[in-house]
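Before going further, learn to read the protein records used in this course. The integers have meaning only within a learned vocabulary of local backbone shapes. The record below shows the convention in full.
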Amino acid sequence: MASPTSLTLVFFPFLLLTLSHAATFDVVNQCSYTVWAAWAGPGNIGNGRQLNQGQSWTVTVKPGTPKSRIWARTGCSFDANGNGHCHSGDCGKLACTSYGSPPNTLAEFALNQNAPPYYTNLDFIDISLVQGFNVPMDFRSTSASCSRDIPCTVDVVRQCPSNLKVPGGCDDPCTIFKTAQYCCPEGSSCEPTHYSKFFKSLCPKAYSYPKDDPTSLFTCPGGTNYKVTFCP
């Protein structure tokens, strides 16, 4: 039989998750136009909601949920069954259960992550422009236990390089050029490019390419709540 010490080590990450509650994300549309907000994570989880100017939507996400994102879609049209398409951020239906297509400004998060002894019960949050940009965004914590604010409030579309401009936004160079230099495949040691530097100059706290961790990835204690604002 395992010793009490080994049992504690085995079940410690589980105990951390049970002590954390679901996180709430208040999603607010301050744009002068309608957006179709969405969230999605692995395992076909997610949802979506039409938000007219000034409307909000509360998303509740289970503790321990990894690799998830919230984003705005623009120029959408759906049928009575909720199937349709959008100019940007499209997932094929109103209630997304998969990630959207570029370009889309992303609020990314992984909740209650554990990798002892390096960290325990941490949320990882960021804004990413790796899939391009469609609407300005602010992503911040709202709990007293953490004070984080990640802004990307510049209208990047207006300044977008001509060869990245597409209907609905400013696309990412990987989607446009489809080369390893811009797509940064897993295991590669890619470097910033002219295009990633363009995005970084406008939104310094946002991911501009996949290896942009040091200035773009932030943490909060597990159990923190958040607010995502479109066009803050």
Remarks:
- The chain has a mean pLDDT of 92.
